[in-house]
């Protein structure tokens, strides 16, 4: 048992590790407040589940598709295993897995309520608070990024200009060796490439700042298409939807041709 000397404990990451850690810590530190923070809106991390906004029973596990439990692990962690099974969060996988190379005593399970239900179970058990995903000000972020790239482009151009002037004067000196000239040529060539890159990046972002500033163009990993539209980033940008549709149509044509 740990001494209850921690008033507040903050855990970074609302995945399985963070959720189980919170539950175990709460068992020992009953009077401590446990807070879990995560970059995504939803919990689960690499064991997240996407749910349809139209069909409640329609879910897609974005992480693990099934859980494999070796016999010795099942015995060692019997408490957790029995708890999840009794709560209907784990159920034996019926059927075979193609290419399965696990040991003969390994049992495979599926998660009827989605793989993220395991994470949510332990978070609920820990009684921890989860910090809501912050609303990101996309227009301001990309406007500042655009300005930074412009400043970087100007700075690189100035460095290139001054270095070229230095090289021009330096090579006129009788003491300038061939090794020095070769080194200068390499540096000048690198600066030219750097100027080209920063210029292209700055021009590209400046020319498409309206597109990048749209709040609907970005989604956080773990969020669903049907999330609250008042939150920034839950839905795909219209242009992205069009590209996906074109890709789907193209694949459909390939299927027809192959048949």
TrEMBL record:
<dbReference type="GO" id="GO:0005576">
    <property type="term" value="C:extracellular region"/>
</dbReference>
<dbReference type="InterPro" id="IPR036188">
    <property type="entry name" value="FAD/NAD-bd_sf"/>
</dbReference>
<protein>
    <submittedName>
        <fullName>PPP1R21</fullName>
    </submittedName>
</protein>
<dbReference type="Pfam" id="PF10212">
    <property type="entry name" value="PPP1R21_helical"/>
</dbReference>
<feature type="domain" description="Protein phosphatase 1 regulatory subunit 21 six-helix bundle">
    <location>
        <begin position="134"/>
        <end position="223"/>
    </location>
</feature>
<dbReference type="InterPro" id="IPR019348">
    <property type="entry name" value="PPP1R21_six_helix"/>
</dbReference>
<dbReference type="GO" id="GO:0016651">
    <property type="term" value="F:oxidoreductase activity, acting on NAD(P)H"/>
</dbReference>
<dbReference type="Pfam" id="PF13450">
    <property type="entry name" value="NAD_binding_8"/>
</dbReference>
<dbReference type="InterPro" id="IPR040174">
    <property type="entry name" value="RNLS"/>
</dbReference>
């Amino acid at each position: 048992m740990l001494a209850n000397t921690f008033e507040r404990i903050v855990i970074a990451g609302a995945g399985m590790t963070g959720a189980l850690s919170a539950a175990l810590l709460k068992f020992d530190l009953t009077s401590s407040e446990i807070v879990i923070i995560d970059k995504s809106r939803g919990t689960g991390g690499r064991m997240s589940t996407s749910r349809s906004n139209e069909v409640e029973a329609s879910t897609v596990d974005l992480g693990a598709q099934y859980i494999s439990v070796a016999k010795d692990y099942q015995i060692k962690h019997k408490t957790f295993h029995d708890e999840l099974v009794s709560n209907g969060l784990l159920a034996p996988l019926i059927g075979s897995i193609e290419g399965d190379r696990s040991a003969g005593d390994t049992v495979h399970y599926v998660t009827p309520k989605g793989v993220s239900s395991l994470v949510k179970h332990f978070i609920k058990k820990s009684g921890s608070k989860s910090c809501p995903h912050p609303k990101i000000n996309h227009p301001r972020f990309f406007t500042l990024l655009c300005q930074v790239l412009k400043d970087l482009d100007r700075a690189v151009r100035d460095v290139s200009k001054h270095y070229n002037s230095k090289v021009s004067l330096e090579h006129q000196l009788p003491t300038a060796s061939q090794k020095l000239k070769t080194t200068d040529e390499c540096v000048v060539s690198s600066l030219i490439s750097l100027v080209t890159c920063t210029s292209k990046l700055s021009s590209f972002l400046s020319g498409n700042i309206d597109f990048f500033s749209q709040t609907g163009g970005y989604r956080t990993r773990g969020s669903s298409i049907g999330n609250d539209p008042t939150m920034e980033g839950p839905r795909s940008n219209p242009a992205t939807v069009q590209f996906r549709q074109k890709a789907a149509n193209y694949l459909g044509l390939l299927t027809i041709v192959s048949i």
